[in-house]
Amino acid sequence: MGDAGIRISVFLAMVLILAIAQWRWPRRQLQHSLLSRWITNFSIVALGSFVVRLLPAFILPVSVAGWAASEQTGLLNLLSLPWWLSMALSIVILDGVIYWQHRMFHRIPVLWNLHRVHHYDPDYDLSTALRFHPIEIFLSILIKNLAILIIGAPVMAVILFEVILNSMALFNHSNLAIPRKTDQTLRKFIITPDMHRVHHSTDIQEMHHNFGFNLSIWDRWFNSYIPHPSLGHEKMHIGQPGSQHLPVNRLLWILGAALKQPVEHKHQT
Q: What is the domain range of residue 103?
């Protein structure tokens, strides 16, 4: 099985497991039609996957990592480190890059217009993790490729990182109730659903915090951590301010909204 097959298999398994888990142990009562949201959110990820398939193979992250290894390009390819250390360093550094990329997409208005598609979801469950504009996906690939070239990340590290990132994004966007003590223990190391849900608040102060997807150290180290929403998880409002009457679950509208609507960006970090 190739790297694409591995990623797809793990993705489908995580979707199935988390869909059952969040149905059995929900954290919040969903306010909008599950069918409507899932059709939209899964359509977006299908469209994004189609766009990625149109890209030349040599600019995909695994191919970039293979080229860096063959040309001995990048920091780790110039050092004689044990393979396991190179793997671990690559995964941690790439996770840090994703954290800063996320902050950048919140801070730069034109990028925020793209990323706002993700935040327009008026509810919060595993399908929210799939809701990214195809242009943002393309830009994310370019940023990731640059990081891979600089680091010299091994091919296996890139594959493993992609699997971990996709799995963790589904997990921390799930509407899964985790016991408070377990959540407090987990969030010392990784992003939990309660920790990341704060990031999807309509409250501006909360929306521009808790950027991590995998490791929780970045938010703590770089002063972007908020432990809980001010209204509590059951009563907090999800989505974008002033979007209650907008067709935020219509695929064509949200794809166009990222490109046509005036930028309304208030950053308070």
A: 3-170+245-260
Domain count within the chain? 1
* Residue 215 DSSP SS3: strand
Q: What Å distances lie between residue 121 and 110, 127, 133, 229, CA to CA?
A: 19, 9, 12, 17
Whether 8 is covered by a domain: the verdict is: yes
* Domain assignment of residue 122, yes or no: yes
Q: Is 165 inside a domain boundary?
A: yes
Instruction: Give dist(CA 10, CA 15) in Å, integer.
Output: 9
The pLDDT tens digits of the residues spanning 182-211 come to 999 999 999 999 999 999 999 999 999 999
CB atoms inside a 10 Å sphere around CB 80 = 6
Give the other-Cβ count within 10 Å of 96's Cβ.
18
Outline where the chain has alpha helix (H): 3-24, 34-54, 61-70, 75-78, 83-107, 109-119, 134-151, 155-172, 180-186, 193-197, 204-207, 217-221, 251-260
Which one, of 11, 178, 252, 215, lies nearest residue 102 by Cα?
A: 215
pTM of the model: 0.93
Q: How does pLDDT run across 90-103, given as a tens digit for each residue?
A: 999 999 999 999 99
Instruction: Give the contacts of 248 (CB within 8 A, at least 6 positions apart).
Output: 120, 121, 122, 239, 240, 254
Task: Write phi, then psi, for 242 (nearest 5 degrees).
Answer: 75, 15
Q: How far apart are CA 81 and CA 85, in angstroms?
A: 6
On whether residue 178 sits in a domain, the answer given is no
